[in-house]
Amino acid sequence: xxxxxxxxxxxxxxxxxxxxxPGEDRLLLSSEExxxxxxxxxxxxxxxxxxxxxxxxxxxxxxxxxxxxxxxxLKVTVTRSGDLDPAWRFWxxxxxxxxxxxxxxxxxxxSAAVGGLAEVYxxxxxxxxxxxxxxxxxxxxxxxxxxxEGGGQVHTQLLQQGLADELQLAVAPLLVGQPDxxxxxxxxLYPGGxxxxxxxxxxxxxxxxxxxxxxxxxxxxTDGRATAADLAWLAEACALAAACPPSRTAFSVGAVVVxxxxxxxxxxxxxxxxxxxxxxxxxxxxxLAGDPRLPGATVYSSLEPCGRRASRPRPCAQWIIDSxxxxxxxxxxxxxxxxxxxxxxxxxQASGVTVVEIARYADAAMRxxxxxxxx
Length: 375
Fold this sequence. Notes:
Low-confidence stretches: none
Number of strands: 14
Structural class: alpha/beta
Radius of gyration: 23 Å
Oligomer: single chain
Largest sheet: 9 strands, mixed
């Protein structure tokens, strides 16, 4: 069974704290601009999850300002005690709610407390199995993108069990300095150990905080929404474009083919092997002829795969369709510099291929081709 794409989201101080020590006034870490960013992330998710401890400590509403209440994502909490207060604001704002109670005792208590306010599901006890069971069940409910907003214990468990796909940290220009202040992550064993470096795919200021976005695994997305892994692989395709042999008459493009398990299958770039007519996607896919992994793979291309081509009869969009690949991620639509109305994306979509465009990488894709665009 499948699981959703899991995004961990938190705001922290420069010294990694989520708040000041218990009993003190709530510390506001996010700026107004960052609140709007978080609202957008909630709106693009199918479900938003917080642990029962966070509900107990902060009583959040988890509003989504950009959606009508009836269109809210599913709001989810997980409890090991079943000690839930029906007066919490969480239950009385937005649309559907779900509770996952770990163990029969927690299930009985949660059902008695909030059974009229939420769907309550029982999860078998066991630290190694509970979270995986929650995620698999959420997938059966139609959740494909899950945003997890804490608290620290929830983030720690999901990271340590290798169940998170993406981490977004908003780092505020504050130093808490209290040894008993709650922190984003607790001690323990994390996948890869202390020497494992995460993949940073984005960093940008949001008001007076800095957003850091990491890909925690390299599995491609599965639908029309871009994931952190998609950003990381598309960045590699753009880097390949920048390393192409120069040309005054053809675009420089990079392409990477990635399997459903996040393993790179092949890569290619324009004019690879010294052939002035070879295109990036053509080069990569020619290395994988008949590979049974292709129907589950994603092609990352710095430029929209061509739909028409002067140099050879088969354009790159047709190469992709013929290969069986069902998903393409690109940074930049092909301009009509050489071929009018290339329409590669339209050709792919007409054949049932999902096309995802990530415009934030357009500048990186255009850079090695600037001389062609200005001519």
